[in-house]
């Protein structure tokens, strides 16, 4: 069985001390091993990054950006290979992996604009003959810790921008599906990145804690669950680092009575079940306003879900694949059970899906649950599976109160055709990313991604304009030139040092 | 003796349970008492702010800004009165208090531009007929904790911007010189600010800890010493708040051999001794490159210091006044003693200044120390007194290494007439605010203030553009309007709900 | 009879050679004379401006801005007096004059943000150790030529921004209502503006042509009718000046069947008849989609118009006042006649309004005309009177084609509650300022004002961010400092000139 | 002999009516013909562009940008071929053509950032529940007219940005060296650009005048000589188009006594003689301050010029090649003659260069002329040949007066090591592009290119941020949603149209 190693200073390194299985979630088989980095290995990566930093920092931004132009070419050239790797270890279907990769590439495209993004502000005459300007300088060595559900995209949210800003990077990706992440990072060398500027260490808590405590790490970006995000944030900040830690979510869609219901159902299908619901922007709760809307939603949804096809990544006609592990499969089923036990009605039941030829895969079928209430565990916690729960309310205000009452504030959406309802909703809802008839309101790469409340710890959102600020520190220069006589000519006859 | 109270919901309130003396540092006399808020009182302020928030949040930015236009007028109208209050409790001379207030007003002026500063980014067609934009929404109730050395200016770095962004504010100013701060805050009501939007609580650790732990406080801005800054930052962030905490400093000026030495000496005088050196941007170390430069610097400095005049705030011909407390006076003298003991040469000795008529004042005279080395305690720690230490080095690179080796990275300066030296210095030095022939490179109000290393904890600097980002959270809206038939006219004949 | 003179170099000057009557349009009486400047007088103003320029250019932006802070105070203090002057010469009612003045003051408020608005872009390391930045420098002496309909507001669109950018200004206001304009300009001196920086010349074509041909004038801003705008633009540009020339308008509102009709009628009342329709943003055509909407609009409008009150400026209960001149009154009535003759139906007829006590005033009452068609003269030309014409169409697309087919493209509006219709309209309509349920979509002062097609000649719109670019020229500096040995220390022993 | 045709709607078209020779300037031979488009052919191109516009306008900016990503790849892939074409028709040496192409590609890179660059400004609550935002919409069909001296670069200044902003483009390149321009434009199709979006017409005044008068052309960008620029600008603006027209130059370098003279000479060599001085940013006048500096400059320059190598483009060891035509060769020699006749001293004489094997080529050798004075014709006019003239002055102020007294204000430079001299110079000199120790201060692609005075007609500079504004028009939308009852729920029971 192959072992996935670490990328340090341009070389693939395997320690061989501790490792862990990597599974194909469609078959349930362990197919690879991943090496788990010790503290020493992580420190070796940090040292490599530190060594590469001075030259990289002084490389003009346009030259750093040009490596990203080339990187984009290489990602597009190797797209099929990357999607295959993602499918084998994560389980997501080819078209979904391609979508993930494309979203990742969009962050590379944005990073190509570094010279524009890094412009400082220049003020002439802040006082008589005094000028002042700001520079956005790199931080040094920074780290990223990323989750299993987007092994290509989430790392690409982070390091392309970190690198073009002049930083060196240590990535600690998920140990569940490490291959595509490592492969992509290796392409950077071919794109012209000097060795040591980008490093990948696979590992577990030991690797994470090393990054959190090492003084040479200036900043940490994290995406994962809220309890870990909170740990990462408080530990990193207590160690004097800047940190942005993105956590869990419970994304609600309000379905208004005036919504185009066919459109809403069509949108909800992909948003709730795509990638088996293992997305922090998955739409997992539909709040129907009024029973007329609720009944229509349930009826149309039920009909539409009949056509959902679950299976292995290699068949592109599948809609979604297995969840990531056996344990996670059991957890998702447990939430469905608990909802049922607490009085909800399982309208479409995905608990025992038959997937021809994949009897041992970690599959959960698309599940629709009606009459969910806020007291239920399945409502309060993030399921991270292909489960759409419907809550019924009487008014739009109740729907909004429900959303605002939840712990998380990542994404949300309203289906309506009414301008006023949409504006009131987007203005007042306590959620960071808002869709109007857009169920997965993931901001495009030139905007920034971030939830509110306990979905994000930190001041600045991920990628886009906020990432430029996160990966740089402001330096303000104030300049005044006292006359040295050179201009006036007095010194020309006999130059002396004063 | 008068007691200084709290401003809560537009009323001045005094608890009367715990209080502390406020001194006139020029006479050494206790002249007032300041009430120390209990947890309950602070919570009352928070509740008032929370209650005022919804209406204030929905007030158009231009209307919030207009209150700042009026506030500026009132600050200018009451300037003399405010400077008097500052002088009586802090001790700084009238001209210096006027300078502080002016710097504060400049932040009010900047806040008047709120409508411009709060613009979000609008993207048409992020996909086919899909638009996306960002909004910078207020956080809610936020807090500021400010130091004794700028009772007018540092609070004005914070709340004008916080308020125009739509937040409500709780200010916990220094308990050593609370009167001017409170007076200024009261002017906001006359300027048209609704009650409860701005509140002031005087207090000590109890008040601070209440602010740090209360869930309703969304953000904390702090200026003070590094150990407290670190405590504030780690506590606030562990409690899920955003935080920016500005700490101590040790600001070096490099004096190059080609510098205009008369200009340098003239600039250093004010930068080292102004406000008795009780400024986080005080220039406390001069690094002379080469003995020729060092000797010239010492000679010219010694001569210039003969004219320094120390005394009470009320005499505007004085250059600077007393330090803030008896204990602080002793601490400053202790540093001078230690430098002497560790081998430095006290060239001009301010340890026992005679100040006619103010025998009990907390005075320290201007002090110049030569041959200081990095091992000395007086070099490693922040003195916060009217003491300029000179370190001699051979090369500019040694001077820069010295600066980069220090714990702090707040401000720094180079005196030279050479473009290349200045550019190399400003590019490479690990300090957040850099002066080129400007010894106090405090950024103007439309740039941002912040040190590096252990001089600032957090991502975003104080005031200026960074403050807009600190006091707002990004919301990204993605919008698509499915056709509802209205435009096409199909629905005109028979409107029905789909 | 008093004569209104010119403001040149801080002094009021009257030539006494040529002059013209100024009327009170409510009474029809000539009440003042206005001096008409000769070429020599205009050149005197230009010379004064040119002389004041070098010092003003070098005044820090923050100091220029502070004059605007004070100017705002003075405008607010003298508001009643200014509105009185406007009413006496222009005829608009007190509340309307107050609105105009307020809109003008908002441009002064925006100009207070000059230090932020004038920031250039700074790029570190555009090449190895090469930096580059942009500066936005003033143009020199610039001119504004403004119309009678907003004697306070339109000049304030121009010169506050031009001045804070560092330019000196020559204003040639309308000779029909010159008093408020001149009074306002005089307040600048009290606000602290140095003499000569701002100058006002009253006059006619001779003054205009002098400004257009004088080499010292760097830029011309104009607001007026399209034929004159075109002349100004082609003449100014042929003389090497930059120019922005705003012309006429024919602003349509589409009334959709799903609109809130009471709201639409309420909005249209003010937008069509306010200031007697003498606004370039007046809503003069309502395009009703479908006869149901059209009939409802006509019915509700007819009822609402019964309450319209026309009269003299001094009675604040009036809705609008007289038009500007006898000739203009006749012209407006002529358009109504022609519409009737060409087959339209005059539903509410304002041709012979009775205004008690003002028998000789230049009044036209609110007029509503139905069944207007694109062939009619009254549809094709700008009426500039209190006349609302209704065109009936079958579909929204027809309504949009009508708008896009018209010569002008200043403002437009749609009344609907449908998000999709609003988005399609605002995206595709060939008009520069678009309202969604906002009938007078005049951009706020921190955005920019400008129409499309033959409503504006030039690249940059009026006021707001575009004005900053219009009143400054870009300078790009690229800087590299070759080592001079100063930093490395080689030169310290023996400095020589190379 | 091959004939170079036009690119219209994706096809190469040749009229065959009128044509003109294309020469190889190194041999003097006519090698090709270029078809000269008639009015009808130009109108055909405009019609094609107009037809392609609606779909292109609605293509999301990110998709338009991705064509530029691919275009960059193709330009890099075909770089050698392009440089060969440039060399054969323009005569510039391979390394110089490569530099030109690279500068062109940098504009393509900048255009890749379109989604960022096209962001509008979004303001929430400009009034109660009223929002406003700006959109930067494309103009429609726009045109570029470009000169012979940069057949690859100058067109790439224009159309990449125009296209990503959503416009369609007609390019009228120089008829002297049309092949590389046409080849490059054809690559766009391979990059994915729809037919008709980009069109190239070769031609002369007939083509130009057609573009200037056709109502469908919304904007014209021009680079060429000042008399033509002035004609283009006044004609285009009189026809209601926006226009930016870049004209001639006379770029001075001030050589200060404290300059690093070896560095200055080294820089001046390339800046004065590179591309035979046929650059609008060529450094053609050195102003030496003081005779010591002047004598040193002349001595070092004379020595350095001995190594200059002139010859054909195909030998990459040559420094520069021939000028563009026989007539231009004679004109350049005429300027040298006139300088000599008017009393200047020809120090290095390039009038009769021997170029082995290229007896009939249009060569002029590098020429250095001392003691030039402002009265000489060779000083007043643009030579556009490999001629560096030295003017001697006593003071820096005299040098600056000289520069400011010249008709042109394109580029300028100062050689000094003194910060104060550099700052004073860059602040005050009336020139649009300023170098500090950078003799060819061509702004990088993410800044903008433009001279002052008679070097540029128009408000906005070429490429960079200004180009975004030039190629788009601002639309400001103001939006208010009156309640329709949908949100409040009133309408849920019985939806009806109001």
From TrEMBL, chains A, B, C, D:
<dbReference type="InterPro" id="IPR016160">
    <property type="entry name" value="Ald_DH_CS_CYS"/>
</dbReference>
<feature type="domain" description="Aldehyde dehydrogenase">
    <location>
        <begin position="18"/>
        <end position="477"/>
    </location>
</feature>
<keyword id="KW-0520">NAD</keyword>
<dbReference type="InterPro" id="IPR015590">
    <property type="entry name" value="Aldehyde_DH_dom"/>
</dbReference>
<protein>
    <recommendedName>
        <fullName>methylmalonate-semialdehyde dehydrogenase (CoA acylating)</fullName>
        <ecNumber>1.2.1.27</ecNumber>
    </recommendedName>
</protein>
<dbReference type="InterPro" id="IPR016162">
    <property type="entry name" value="Ald_DH_N"/>
</dbReference>
<dbReference type="InterPro" id="IPR010061">
    <property type="entry name" value="MeMal-semiAld_DH"/>
</dbReference>
<keyword id="KW-0560">Oxidoreductase</keyword>
<dbReference type="InterPro" id="IPR016161">
    <property type="entry name" value="Ald_DH/histidinol_DH"/>
</dbReference>
<dbReference type="InterPro" id="IPR016163">
    <property type="entry name" value="Ald_DH_C"/>
</dbReference>
<dbReference type="Pfam" id="PF00171">
    <property type="entry name" value="Aldedh"/>
</dbReference>
